[in-house]
Design brief:
This is ABC transporter ATP-binding protein. It comes from Actinomadura darangshiensis. Keywords: ATP-binding, Nucleotide-binding, Translocase, Transport. One of its GO terms (molecular function) is ATP hydrolysis activity. The chain has nine helices and eleven strands. By secondary structure, it is α/β, with parallel strands linked by helices. The protein has a single domain, classed as P-loop containing nucleotide triphosphate hydrolases (Rossmann fold, 3-Layer(aba) Sandwich). The strands form three sheets. It has a six-stranded mixed beta sheet, sandwiched between helices. Strands 2-1-4 form a three-stranded antiparallel beta sheet, with helices on one face. β10 and β11 form a beta hairpin. α4 crosses α5. The protein is globular. The structure holds adenosine-5'-triphosphate (ATP). Adenosine-5'-triphosphate (ATP) binds next to α1.
């Protein structure tokens, strides 16, 4: 399913946070939204979901999610926010099972299939041993994987992930990115993720969109966006860029 945004604008607290943003994410592809702190990356995801007021055109599989009820939206798009409110005392299993809520009838109970899907997702994210643990008894990285687990349990065709790897060690970063990539290939999932690790973004995404001061500053394949000059201009960082496997850029910081 495609995600298309045209001339998107968002104002927050009386300030224009996104201006004229356009985005084209083909079905089954992975787009990474990059950009400096405060650029508007999370706001862009929230606007696509219809969680913040916006003007401009938004189409997810041809539909404008701003007109959808939450339950209807949750069958089409799964969203893993950067810092979700986690219910104190709820177990990892029950929180992940919440991902099945859009399919459970009102006043009904989850089915055996809902529980099986939840168990499978926990297994794929190395979380089976934590299933009965309350969310507030987890480390930051474990919590982050549980938030992703809930989103994957929704089994939607579009996945929006806000900074899915920030709290993860390098092994779990790889595990999460590989898992998302596998799902993308096997289930034709369309993925949009914000991400700060530019090398990681360049290794997995088909296209990068650089947001800077609320506008699209660059967009295209990783090797076109991740250039030394672009990084210096928008992040005020000096980096060395070398072509890695498949020509995908590897960035390292240059000491002044
Ligand atoms: N509710 C709000 N009211 C006013 N301004 C807001 C609100 N929420 C966010 N902002 C501002 O909007 C801008 C964009 O925020 P956003 O969270 O989208 O940035 P980001 O690119 O995701 O940043 P980061 O990389 O730090 O997570 C920031 O300047 C932020 O301070």
């Amino acid at each position: 399913m495609t995600v298309t945004v045209r001339s998107l604008g968002v104002a927050l607290g009386g300030r224009q946070v996104l201006k004229g943003v356009s985005l084209d994410v083909p079905a089954g592809s992975w787009t990474a939204i990059i950009g400096p702190n405060g650029a508007g990356k999370s706001t862009l995801l929230r606007a696509v979901l219809g969680l913040v007021a916006s003007h401009g055109d938004i189409a997810v599989a041809g539909a404008d999610l701003r007109t959808f009820k939450p339950r209807q939206r949750a069958r089409l798009v799964a969203y893993a926010p950067q810092s979700p409110n986690l219910p104190v005392g709820m177990t990892v299993f029950d929180y992940t099972l919440l991902g099945r809520s859009p399919y459970i009838p009102h006043l009904g109970r989850e089915s055996a299939r809902d529980r099986t899907i939840t168990e499978e997702v926990l297994d794929r994210l190395d979380l089976t041993d934590f299933a009965d643990r309350p969310l507030d008894h987890l480390s930051g990285g474990e919590r982050q994987r549980v938030v992703l687990a809930r989103a994957l349990a929704q089994q939607t065709s579009v996945l929006l992930l806000d900074e899915p790897t920030t709290a993860l060690d390098i092994g779990h970063q790889q595990q999460v990115m590989e898992l998302v990539d596998q799902l993308r290939l096997s289930d034709e999932l369309t993925v949009v993720t914000t991400i700060h690790d530019l090398t990681l973004a360049g290794q997995y995404a088909d296209d990068l969109v650089l947001i800077s001061a609320g506008r699209v500053a660059a967009a295209g394949p990783p090797e076109r966006v991740l250039t030394r000059d672009t990084i210096e201009e928008h992040f005020d960082a000096r980096v060395h860029v070398t072509p890695g496997p498949g020509g995908r850029p590897i960035l390292s910081l240059e000491r002044p």
